Here is the input.
Amino acid sequence: MSKYPKIDLDGALVAISGAARGIGLETAKAFAARGAKVALGDLDADLAAQAADAIGTRAIGLALDVTDKESYRAWLAAAEEWAGRPLDVLVNNAGVMPNGAFLEQADEVDRLTMDVNVYGVIHGMRLALPGMVERGRGHLVNVASLAGKFPLPGLAVYNASKYAVVGMTAATRLEMKDTGVSVTAVLPSAVRTELSSGIDLGVLPTVDPEDIANAVVKSVRTRSGEIAVPGYVGVASNAATLVPEPILGLVRRAAKDDAAITRVDDSVRTKYLDRILKK
Ligand SMILES: NC(=O)c1ccc[n+]([C@@H]2O[C@H](COP(=O)([O-])OP(=O)(O)OC[C@H]3O[C@@H](n4cnc5c(N)ncnc54)[C@H](O)[C@@H]3O)[C@@H](O)[C@H]2O)c1
Here is the structure.
């Protein structure tokens, strides 16, 4: 028997950060389709509200800036008030992925990356976990990345942020082990969303946001600690640490692992970078 009390998604409250588009939006749809009440939060409040309207009465879209703890607190409180019940599942999904050679990145871009991808997740965990522990049930998913296990040229600070999330998730999972509350990291490979747009990722396995949404929903049942999507890339990234550097280098070259520097279509990429840097 699982050490985690079952969460019946029918009527449960699921809150998802960064849910106005991409993986977060598909995750919201997938939970709503299973009867959950979904609270979408996003920096783009209008888009979050529109997305929730399209999902229907089981969804609400609200403003959220995950880098601001008070904004995060207000969002969770509004979600619970709307649903009339405490939070069952939190999906820390909001994230940004600036790309480029490490030596050419601006300091404020590094800060943004760490603020959203690391502190945004810390805020969500610090605010949601105490209530879950008190109730003895709950599930928290951090959408990390395979970049949290496998370094890629052109994504050094993004790598740093996602390695942080993978480590933090694993450690808090241990701390929570006797509380009835589970903490899971989902590690997508490349996903077809705006975040990776304009980068030709070569042979890197690419999946759809729906695939990540399904993995997040499934985690409510399995409560696995770490879920890579597709699964085999998780095994491969763990195995890569055992491969001697010269051999791994050959594989990396064949796979064009420096795509985030060398295989970028600026006319597409600029649109994404302008959005996250609010230009
Ligand atoms: N797309 C990929 O290839 C890929 C691969 C691995 C992991 N991921 C991770 O998946 C998550 C979702 O990415 P996506 O591909 O759907 O990206 P996306 O850009 O399509 O959507 C991300 C959403 O997060 C929102 N957001 C950004 N900053 C925010 C903030 N401060 N507060 C609240 N919302 C904020 C954005 O407005 C946007 O709606 C991210 O954590 C990303 O790192 C994506």
About this structure: The mean pLDDT is 97. The pocket of nicotinamide-adenine-dinucleotide is lined by residues 17-18, 20-24, 42-44, 64-67, 93-97, 116, 120, 143, 145, 188, 190-191, 193-196 (CB under 6 Å). The beta strands are 13-17, 37-42, 59-63, 89-92, 138-143, 181-188, 190-191, 206-207, 226-229. The first helix runs from residue 22 to 33.
